[in-house]
């Protein structure tokens, strides 16, 4: 079996890293045939980073069509800015970037710390706890709901839809779940029109009323922010915690030097990237990477996680080192579509991990690491459950 | 050596990596998150930090050109 054929198999879900190593070394620009489609996968750091900033790689799927068919073809199925090029991308991004600045997110830090402490205080006193379900998932959800103005009480519904959208095993249901999210947010938007609040959705409604974005773009933006707030940071916290729990020396180092948590979060992002790859890039012409020509009109997938473990870029790339202080990772991507929520993710990751190891420095895994199971998703790398014992006497 | 820092506002996506890494040199505009240069002419001992910031800008919006004799004429 080619390395590229091992992608998105059971072996991959369990541990993708040996496959990434083989891809980088043997097939750095891998052509994969998948049922009725062809995808090109890049895995080397220098290639992935360059590709993310390459103007010849578009987010507009219509580049896969012959030129004469493009004008009449519809735009993206969901009008999210992550599926657009400039100038539409630029217009939409500018409407939300002020809500996610470094300073604004820093201003949320006390609230995030407070929410973390509240959630930790509510953890069961004894026995194994699924720290994902009871903490790592709840924190980013509560924060994004506050930010957007989405009622947190509805969260079990939209959490399920959001999960399904990114689930590889049920592609037909993913579209259905996306529709449900769009309907839910469409209704919420109408409510906010009559009763606006301080949240971002109300702010976006004002922009829509000034024709800065269309109604369908408004819904798509809200869906995108809600999904992103649900499915990503949970895995930064989960993957980071697992890294600590399986590397006792690193865990001890962080306990003894709590100020290392900022550097530790960067290393978690690099070492076990919550968003492991990005798809939906389309070549607008023939492009060459690592001496391989990818034809124009091709679909390209960029493996952020493989790039982040590239020994050509990171010394001892496979090692977890929380004090590495070399934060050139690509976990938040690069280029025009660099993660909008990156600063928010950092603040959440830092405060969550800090609060958890302060409250429960003796935390251990409640199961053998080999019993842990990963979700099957072509986008996120995340555990289904992470059972822990909060202390030795749990 | 003078290194006037310049932000190309048409490229800037408001990611804030610059403001995070070098808060003495960069900030972000309130209304759209676009980067603002706080000190366009920083001291030479900030060259290394500035190089890192330029590298980390996701959209390549930041440049710092060493000034030649001719360029300095105002």
Query: Residue ranges of chain B: pLDDT <50 for 5 or more in a row?
Result: 69-74
Mean pLDDT, all residues of chain A: 93
For the largest interface, the chains and their residue counts are: A-B, 23 and 21 residues
**Count of helical regions of chain A:** 17
Give the oligomer, counting copies of the same chain as homo and different chains as hetero: heterodimer
Describe the main β-sheet of chain B briefly. 2 strands, antiparallel
Relative helix content of chain A: 40-55%
What fraction strand of chain A?
Answer: 5-15%
The succession of helices and strands of chain A, N to C, reads HHEEHEHHHEHHHHHHHHHEEEEHHEE
Number of strands of chain A: 10
Overall geometry of chain B: globular
Walkthrough of the structure:
The complex is a heterodimer of chains A (394) and B (74). With 394 residues, chain A is an alpha+beta fold. Chain A is built from 17 helices and ten strands. Chain A has helices spanning 10-14, 17-26, 45-52, 67-70, 88-96, 102-121, 131-136, 138-148, 155-165, 171-194, 200-209, 215-231, 233-245, 248-256, 261-271, 304-308, 342-359; strands at residues 29-34, 37-42, 57-58, 129-130, 277-283, 287-289, 292-294, 299-303, 364-365, 387-389. In chain A, the strands form three sheets. Chain A has a five-stranded mixed beta sheet, with helices on both faces. In chain A, strands 4-10-9 form a three-stranded antiparallel beta sheet. In chain A, strands 6-7 form a two-stranded antiparallel sheet. In chain A, helix 6 packs parallel to helix 17, helix 13 runs parallel beside helix 17 (342-359) and helix 15 packs across helix 17. Chain A is globular, with a radius of gyration of 21 Å. The termini of chain A are far apart. Chain B is α+β, with helices and mostly antiparallel strands. Chain B is 26% helix and 16% strand. Chain B is built from three helices and four strands. In chain B, the strands form two sheets. A two-stranded antiparallel sheet of chain B has the order 1-4. The longest helix of chain B has 10 residues, at 47-56. The two termini of chain B are 16 Å apart. The model of chain B is unreliable at 69-74 (pLDDT under 50). The interface between A and B is medium-sized, with 23 and 21 residues.
């Amino acid at each position: 079996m080619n390395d590229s054929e091992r992608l998105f198999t059971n072996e991959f879900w369990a541990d993708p890293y040996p496959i990434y190593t083989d891809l980088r070394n043997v097939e750095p620009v891998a052509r994969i045939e998948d049922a009725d489609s062809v995808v090109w996968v890049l895995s080397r750091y220098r290639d992935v980073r360059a590709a993310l900033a390459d103007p010849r790689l578009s987010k507009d799927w219509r580049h896969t069509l012959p030129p004469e068919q493009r004008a009449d073809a519809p735009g993206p199925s969901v009008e999210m800015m992550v599926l657009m090029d400039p100038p539409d991308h630029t217009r939409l991004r500018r409407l939300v970037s002020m809500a996610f600045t470094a300073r604004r997110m820093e201003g949320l830090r006390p609230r995030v710390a407070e929410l973390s402490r509240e959630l930790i205080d509510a953890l069961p006193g004894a026995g194994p706890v699924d720290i994902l379900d009871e903490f790592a998932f709840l924190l980013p959800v509560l924060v994004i709901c506050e930010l957007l103005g989405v009622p947190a009480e509805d969260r079990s519904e939209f959490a399920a839809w959001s999960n399904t959208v990114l689930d590889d095993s049920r592609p037909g249901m993913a579209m259905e779940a996306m529709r449900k999210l769009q309907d839910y947010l469409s209704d919420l938007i109408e409510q906010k029109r009559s009763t606006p609040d301080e949240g971002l959705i109300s702010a976006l409604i004002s922009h829509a009323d000034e024709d800065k974005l269309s109604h369908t773009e408004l819904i798509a933006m809200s869906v995108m922010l809600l999904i992103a707030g649900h499915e990503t940071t949970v895995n930064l916290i989960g993957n980071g915690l697992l890294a600590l729990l399986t590397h006792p020396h690193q865990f001890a180092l962080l306990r003894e030097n709590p100020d290392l948590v900022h550097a530790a979060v960067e290393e978690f992002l690099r070492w076990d990237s919550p968003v492991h790859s990005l798809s939906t890039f389309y070549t607008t012409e023939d492009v060459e990477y690592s001496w391989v020509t990818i034809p124009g009109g091709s679909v390209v997938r960029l493996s952020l996680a493989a790039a982040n473990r590239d020994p050509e870029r990171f010394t001892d790339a496979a090692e977890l080192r929380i004090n590495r202080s070399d934060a050139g990772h690509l976990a938040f991507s690069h280029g025009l579509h660099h993660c909008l929520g990156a600063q928010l993710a950092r603040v959440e990751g830092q405060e969550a991990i800090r609060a958890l190891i302060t409250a429960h420095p003796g935390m251990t895994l409640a199961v053998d690491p080999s019993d842990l199971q990963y979700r099957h998703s072509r986008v996120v790398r995340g555990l289904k459950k992470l059972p822990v014992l909060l202390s030795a006497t749990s | 050596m003078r290194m006037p820092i310049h932000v190309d506002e048409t490229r800037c996506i408001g990611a804030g990596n610059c403001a995070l890494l070098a808060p003495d040199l960069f900030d972000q505009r309130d209304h759209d998150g676009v980067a603002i240069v706080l000190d366009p002419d920083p001291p030479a001992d900030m060259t290394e930090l500035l190089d890192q910031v330029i590298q980390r800008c996701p959209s390549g919006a930041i440049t710092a050109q060493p000034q030649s004799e001719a360029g300095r004429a105002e």
